[in-house]
Each structure stands twice: as structure tokens, then as C-alpha cells.
Amino acid sequence: MNNQQVWKNYEHESKVEKFYASGIDGFHDYHKGYLNFGYWTRDGMTYEEAAENLVRHAGELLGLGQGSILLDVGCGMGTQDIALFRACNPESIDALDVTWKHIERARIRALREGVGEDRIRFHHGSATKLPFPDNSFTHLLSIEAPEHFDTREKFFHEAFRVLKPGGVMVLTDYGLVRPPRNMFERGAIDFARRLWQVPKANIYENNIYQSKLEAAGFQAIAIDTIGKYTIPGYYFEHRRPESVAEIKKIRGFWKGIVGGYLIDVGVYGAYKLGLCEYLIVCAKKPII
Ligand SMILES: C[S@@+](CC[C@H](N)C(=O)[O-])C[C@H]1O[C@@H](n2cnc3c(N)ncnc32)[C@H](O)[C@@H]1O
């Protein structure tokens, strides 16, 4: 296990870490530590059920099982790794995140849940400079984190490097369905991406997403859009009075209520305008 990294102020990692670390000391077990949008495939699901459903779906797409050696990039507070460990029994999980406080929480959570460090290891680091040798993992996962990486394209090359030949990668992410049509759409995207710490270089349509994966060497690429099962569910979960009260307590009025609301409205609005989609991406590193 590695120790805390120190990001320079000008590095994008520093901005992302500040964004996610804010209010985290009050987060405790809110939403069970999950930060994903959820996969709302049944009526009446709670947020925790939807969040776990998304993780399970990603695990199934990956084909995780005994003998799998998984790298999870942007693991958040580690809840998803413990869930995958229990559900799929992989040989090991290395999970990495740029936010030190997330790694601290993940390590505490794993200890509390009785999951040994020999099977799940949490690392502080960046997706664009993965601290692992070439050909280390059979599977690689990233849930709702690639949009932040500086850049996502650099991460594709790193992911390809650390995967073994024949390795599988699954990402959940956001993409543009079409280019913005006018100044209003361009302005709204720019505003939301700045608030959410998304580099400008990561804003592009799905055909460009696919070509960047191909350029990194990936094959058998499938990019599915599942926005209708993710974006509205999360948006309306955050509008519940109980959620508003809890988020205000955790992140404060300005960051939690005002900032969070603007990001939610930005993503939901862009989705409703047919501009942005939630992606689930599967790709393989070829054997030769
Ligand atoms: C929306 S959260 C998702 C967390 C987790 N996958 C989940 O669904 O609960 C995005 C995560 O990506 C992490 N992240 C952002 N940029 C990163 C980078 N360059 N390298 C590693 N992790 C990063 C953030 O710290 C945050 O934990």
C-alpha cells in the first residue's frame, strides 16, 4: 500500500481532490459511501439498491470471478470494492483514488467489514500515472470517474498498459450525444464542467470516445447509453427533502445545496436536451 501523495496546486488532481474532500468528514455512512448515480431498473428502488445495482451490473459486464485480478480506478470510499469482492470473489482488488480522504475511509471500511489487506489494497494516486507495472491486471473498472481524469485519453493509454493481454475494461462515464447547437448550450456545458472539475479536453461525442479507445489499442469496444436508468433517478433522489437536509449538513449550503444543485441541473438538463448521455463502456486488450 502506498502513502499520501501531494498534488501541486496547478495540477488538476489537486482541484479534484479539494472538490471531493470537502465535507467528507461528515459523510460517514450516508448513501453507504457510494457516490455513483445508481442504476434504477425497478420501481421503488432506494438509492443504496440502485447504487449497488450499478456496481453489480459493471461486475457482470467485466466477467469478474475467481482468479480475477482487478484494478478499480476512482474507487471513491471503497464500498464498491467490498461489494464486488463479496459478490464475485476475485483473487485480489487494487483500488486507487486521487482523494486521500476517500482512501482513508476505504481502508477503515475494509477493516470494519473484515476484508483483509492481502486481498483488497487501497492506493492514493492518479489514473493518468498508475503506480503499477505493465500487464498487471486481468480486469479494470472505473465508475463515474473518467470524466475527471486529466486527460481521459491519457488514462486509456495507462489502462491499456497495466492490463494483461486479453484483459477487460469496463467504464461508466458521460459523453456528448451531439455537439452543442448554440451559445446557451455551449455556455451551460462549460459552466457545469468547470463546477464539476471536468477538463475541457474530456468533452466530446461518442464516436471520438471510441476512436480514442482504439488509438490506445483497445478492441471489441461497446459503448452503450443508459442515461434513462441513471440520470433521472439520481436527480430526483437529490430533490427529496431528506436528501437536501442531509447534503446541507454534510457539505454546507453553498457547496452542497447551491453547487450540487447546479451540477445536478446541468447534467439532468443536458440529458433532457439530448446533449449528454450516461455511458457504459466495455473494451478488451487484444491477446497479441
Ligand atoms: C463520482 S466519484 C465516484 C466514486 C466511486 N467510483 C463511486 O461510484 O462511489 C469520482 C471519483 O473519482 C476520483 N478521481 C477523480 N480524478 C481522479 C484521478 N485522476 N485519479 C484517480 N481518481 C480520481 C474522485 O476522487 C472520486 O472519488
From TrEMBL:
Q: Show where the Methyltransferase type domain sits.
A: 71-170
Reply yes or no: does the keyword Cell wall biogenesis/degradation apply: no
Q: Does the keyword Transferase apply?
A: yes
The molecular function terms in GO held by this entry are: S-adenosylmethionine-dependent methyltransferase activity
Pfam families in alphabetical order: Methyltransf_11 (PF08241)
Q: List UniProt keywords, sorted A-Z.
A: Transferase
Q: Which InterPro entries match?
A: Erg6_SMT_methyltransf, Methyltransf_11, SAM-dependent_MTases_sf
Question: What PANTHER family does the record point to?
Answer: GERANYL DIPHOSPHATE 2-C-METHYLTRANSFERASE, ZGC:194242
Q: What is this protein called?
A: Methyltransferase type 11 domain-containing protein
Q: Which organism is it from?
A: Candidatus Uhrbacteria bacterium RIFCSPLOWO2_01_FULL_47_24
